[in-house]
């Protein structure tokens, strides 16, 4: 991991002060291992240096404004960037696991018609440190328990912020830093085929998920504008390249929309489309947003899953989490969370 690329302001401050080179590594460890958000907490650094860093290169680049907890234990964090943009991050607790869902852009340019984030448009890309810090804050919050998984499925299309996203993931994966295994990190894309191929060629064993949502090209173009740029055959060529190159399972995300993509003909077409043993279909019922769509009923969603499995598809129906605080998949829109039940952020000794 090239620490200087991740912490350029810190590096500059250290150089201006004539500090020894190892101080940069100490600062990096303070952020990614000790999870400090104020340099005064970094006791491995001299007091004078801590003061200088707090003045010139603060430990926290995101302002944590609020954290809310859903009835199922899901937590949503509202951050503001230094230039006043709001982003959201979600932490999902499960048996023996804590999964953090992170954002890579302020808003999203993909304009998927069923997604609240897509209604926002795009403000800017997040920097690698802003992306990684979302995980570090969640990790500090749940300590001494650990973050077990990271999914890049929050606000934004990560493949349109490719360099900064991969840089952040390498920080999270770094054995001398946060030390999260690459196979516990997954990136979701709406289907940018050139970036899928590029991602397949990366040396780390990160997982990939492709947002599919229908096996029919005309329907996909209607609900996902990206489909007008890349046809389903082009997308599946890239998918095959990914599995042939990496030999890793490839996940296809599929949001069930009542009367839109939840009919038997969709299952039958998916069987023909997802014809590789490393392909896996992740089904999710639509989480309400003010987009005009409705969720497939629970019974119909289970029937869709059952039919898919009967026809030989590897498939799962994922539960929705955090709906009562708008933290479920497709609901992130960085609303002001005032009025939500606040939870205290855990302090570290």
UniProtKB/TrEMBL annotation:
InterPro entries in UniProt: Aldolase_TIM (IPR013785), Methyltransferase_A (IPR040072), RNA_MTrfase_RlmN (IPR027492), rRNA_lsu_MTrfase_RlmN/Cfr (IPR004383), rSAM (IPR007197), rSAM_sf (IPR058240)
Which residues of the sequence carry a binding annotation for [4Fe-4S] cluster? 108, 112, 115
Q: Which CDD domains match?
A: Radical_SAM
Recorded catalytic reaction(s): these are: adenosine(2503) in 23S rRNA + 2 reduced [2Fe-2S]-[ferredoxin] + 2 S-adenosyl-L-methionine = 2-methyladenosine(2503) in 23S rRNA + 5'-deoxyadenosine + L-methionine + 2 oxidized [2Fe-2S]-[ferredoxin] + S-adenosyl-L-homocysteine; adenosine(37) in tRNA + 2 reduced [2Fe-2S]-[ferredoxin] + 2 S-adenosyl-L-methionine = 2-methyladenosine(37) in tRNA + 5'-deoxyadenosine + L-methionine + 2 oxidized [2Fe-2S]-[ferredoxin] + S-adenosyl-L-homocysteine
Where does the UniProt entry say this protein principally localizes?
cytoplasm
Asked whether the UniProt record includes Protease among its keywords, one would answer no
List the GO biological process terms: rRNA base methylation; tRNA methylation
Localization per Swiss-Prot or TrEMBL = Cytoplasm
Q: What cofactor does this chain's UniProt record say it requires?
A: [4Fe-4S] cluster
Spell out the molecular function terms from Gene Ontology: 4 iron, 4 sulfur cluster binding; metal ion binding; rRNA (adenine(2503)-C2-)-methyltransferase activity; rRNA binding; tRNA (adenine(37)-C2)-methyltransferase activity; tRNA binding
Q: What is the free-text note on the cofactor?
A: Binds 1 [4Fe-4S] cluster. The cluster is coordinated with 3 cysteines and an exchangeable S-adenosyl-L-methionine.
Q: Which GO terms describe its cellular component?
A: cytoplasm
The catalytic site is made up of 88, 329
What residues does the Radical SAM core domain cover? Answer: 94-324
Query: In which residues is S-adenosyl-L-methionine bound?
Result: 156-157, 188, 211-213, 287
Q: What EC number(s) is this enzyme filed under?
A: 2.1.1.192
**Swiss-Prot/TrEMBL keywords:** 4Fe-4S, Cytoplasm, Disulfide bond, Iron, Iron-sulfur, Metal-binding, Methyltransferase, rRNA processing, S-adenosyl-L-methionine, Transferase, tRNA processing
Q: Sum up the protein's function in the record's words.
A: Specifically methylates position 2 of adenine 2503 in 23S rRNA and position 2 of adenine 37 in tRNAs.
Share any extra remarks. Answer: Reaction proceeds by a ping-pong mechanism involving intermediate methylation of a conserved cysteine residue.
Query: Which named protein is this?
Result: Probable dual-specificity RNA methyltransferase RlmN
- Origin organism is Rubrobacter tropicus
**What is the gene called?**
rlmN
């Amino acid at each position: 991991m090239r620490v200087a690329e991740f912490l350029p302001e810190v590096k500059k401050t250290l150089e201006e002060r004539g500090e020894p080179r190892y101080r940069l590594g100490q600062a990096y460890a303070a952020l990614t291992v000790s999870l400090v958000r104020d340099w005064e907490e970094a006791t491995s650094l001299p007091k004078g240096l801590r003061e200088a860093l707090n003045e010139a290169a603060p430990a926290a680049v995101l302002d944590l404004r609020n954290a809310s907890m859903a009835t199922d234990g899901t937590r949503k964090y509202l951050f503001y960037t230094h230039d006043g943009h709001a982003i959201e991050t979600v932490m999902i607790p499960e048996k023996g696991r804590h999964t953090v869902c992170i954002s890579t852009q302020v808003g999203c340019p993909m304009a998927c018609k069923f997604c609240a984030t897509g209604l926002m448009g795009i403000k800017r890309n997040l920097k690698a440190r802003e992306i990684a810090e979302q995980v570090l804050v969640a990790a500090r919050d749940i300590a001494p328990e650990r973050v077990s998984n990271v999914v890049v499925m929050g606000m934004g299309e990560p493949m349109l912020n490719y360099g900064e996203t991969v840089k952040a993931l390498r920080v999270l994966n770094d054995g001398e830093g946060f030390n999260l295994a690459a196979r516990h990190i997954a990136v979701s894309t709406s289907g940018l085929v050139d970036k899928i191929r590029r991602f397949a060629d990366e040396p780390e064993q990160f997982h990939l998920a492709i947002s599919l949502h229908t096996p029919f090209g005309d329907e996909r173009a209607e609900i996902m504008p990206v489909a007008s740029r890349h046809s389903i055959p082009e997308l599946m060529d890239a998918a095959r390249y990914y599995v042939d190159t990496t030999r890793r399972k490839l996940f296809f995300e599929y949001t069930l929309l009542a009367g839109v993509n939840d009919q038997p003909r969709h299952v039958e077409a998916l069987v023909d489309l997802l014809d590789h043993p490393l392909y896996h279909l992740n089904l999710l019922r639509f989480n309400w947003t003010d987009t005009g769509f409705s969720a497939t009923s629970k019974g119909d969603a289970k029937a869709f899953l059952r039919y898919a499995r009967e026809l030989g598809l590897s498939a799962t129906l994922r539960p929705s989490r955090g709906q009562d605080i708008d933290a479920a998949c497709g609901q992130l829109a960085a609303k002001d969370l005032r009025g939500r039940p606040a939870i205290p952020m855990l302090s570290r000794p």
